[in-house]
Amino acid sequence: MEGLLDCVLRDILTRVGGVDHCVSEFIRVTHTLLTERTFLRVIPELAHGGCTPSGVPVRAQLLGSDPVSMAENAARLAELGPHGIDLNFGCPAKVVNRHGGGAALLEHPELLTRIVSAVCRAVPPGMPVTAKMRLGLNDDSRAVECAQALADGGAQELVVHARTKADAYRPPAYWDRINDIRLAVSIPVVANGEIWTVDDARRCRQASGCDSIMLGRGIVTDPGLALAIRRADGTCSTEDFRQPDDQGPQVPWADMLPLLGGFWLLVVSRLERRQQAGRLKQWLNFMRTRYPQAQAAYDALRTLHDPALVTQWLTQQGALGTELLSIE
Asked: Which of 261, 257, 255, 222 shows the shortest CA–CA distance to 241?
């Protein structure tokens, strides 16, 4: 999720728990061999064993349409030690699709096979190569064909976002179509799309037949969602947060405050000054649908652009220590 689930939010969300692995924002591949510096800028975890500070593995995601360029960049990226390389065939952004990338490739199953096959040949044995797709570009008539093309190319796992590019992010997600794909390929399939609650996860698994799910906007909105799903599955014994059948988010606001403070410190350390306040408000904008306190925070910070004033407000709320009042 470009511009949202970056290394900063990966760090914070994996502190909460419940996540098996993360996938980076996509790195756009054209006809240039990208530098290690470029990869490290998007995925700084590569300098620390390929994991978030909490120890959660990160897969590096590439987006492009030229098999040769994708293979060359995958080979260089693999040298940095990611926990797998993921190939994006689902991005619905107009600028990406206009240049033949992302979901636009779902109109060309034979090219999907060529791209995946080239990447698989280019990376060391044992380096997982996975793929993510939507159900199609304008309709889902070729969904199974595209999934089979990715599997034929050598993809070891397939994440399916249960909407077409034309559907964008409008509800519903068509989880039952993931089941059609799952039955047509021999590789593991992961369900994705419109999973906001524990009940959504349950219904998605039932409709798709998939045990594994991928969370996107749902975990940004409710940072404890993965943990809540784990607890509902009986695979998490953490007693620090709410039970998943309670009303409200999994992580109480009192526990979210230090995470919000940690997020802000990372934002200040990594982003340009003019971007900092907006980045915090972006996350609060998601969380306010689950937390009344996030709505109050968003309202309080909405007109603030000076990072020093944001820091002061967060300190007053107990999200930061008083020694940080002078941060710039």
From this structure: 255
pLDDT digits (tens, 9 = 90+) for 165-189: 999 999 999 999 999 999 999 999 9
Cα–Cα distance between 283 and 121 in angstroms, integer? 39
- The CATH superfamily holding the domain 7-233 is Aldolase class I (3.20.20.70)
- The whole-model pTM stands at 0.92
Show me where the domains of the chain are located: 7-233, 253-324
Q: Which of 145-159, 215-229, 245-259, 310-324 has the lowest mean pLDDT?
A: 245-259
CATH number of 253-324: 1.20.225
Strand partners, 291: none
Q: Do domains 7-233 and 253-324 have the same CATH topology?
A: no
Sign of the dihedral defined by the CA atoms of residues 31, 32, 36, 38, in that order: negative
Q: Is 68 helix (H, G, I), strand (E, B) or coil?
A: helix
If residue 171 lies in a helix (H) or strand (E), which one and from where to where? Answer: none
Distance CA 138, CA 57 (A): 34
> CB pairs under 8 A, 24+ apart, for 202-209?
202/232, 203/175, 204/173, 204/175, 207/175, 207/176, 207/178, 207/179, 208/160, 208/162, 208/175, 208/176, 208/178, 208/179, 208/182, 209/178, 209/179, 209/182, 209/183
Q: Is 76 left (phi over 0), alpha (psi -120 to 50) or beta?
A: alpha
| CB-based contacts of 45, cutoff 8 Å, min separation 6 | 7, 10, 51, 52, 58
Active site residue 91: yes
Tokens coding 12: 């914070």
Residues β-bridged to residue 262: none
The alpha-carbon radius of gyration of the chain (Å, integer) is: 20
Q: How far is CA 197 from CA 10, 167, 227, 286, in A?
A: 19, 21, 11, 14
pLDDT per residue as tens digits for the range 24-51 = 999 999 999 999 999 999 999 999 999 9
Q: Which of 91, 146, 204, 210 is catalytic?
A: 91
